[in-house]
Amino acid sequence: MILADIVGYEELDTVADLIKHRREVTRSSSVDAEENSVVGRLQTRQEREEALRRQDHEHKHAALGPSLNRDGPQYPHVYRTHEASNKLSAHGRAYTLPVGSTHRDEEVLLTIIYDCFKC
Fold first, then answer.
1. Is the pLDDT of residue 119 over 70?
2. Is residue 95 part of a domain?
3. Domain for residue 13, yes or no?
4. What pTM was computed for the model?
């Protein structure tokens, strides 16, 4: 891909200036790379491990941010009557069993029998 494709053909003056001053542009990027020792050049395994160790130490010993107060106002849930997760229908009424259903709560078992023809 050529530079004019990247920058755009509307910016041919900019492309011409970049080509004209290409040595200055490449020299300035190499100077920046020399200042930044981690990114600017290839590192040996020992240098890379030392840089990782240093970054890990800085990360682990960095100051923590302030604690956040998450005890803000508790607004009621739109579809719950209370925090026991009782769901409400879209009309604001609690869900009910169909008419004619039988609800038996025994000691060990909850039995609900409903007649589908009446639903």
1. no
2. no
3. yes
4. 0.28
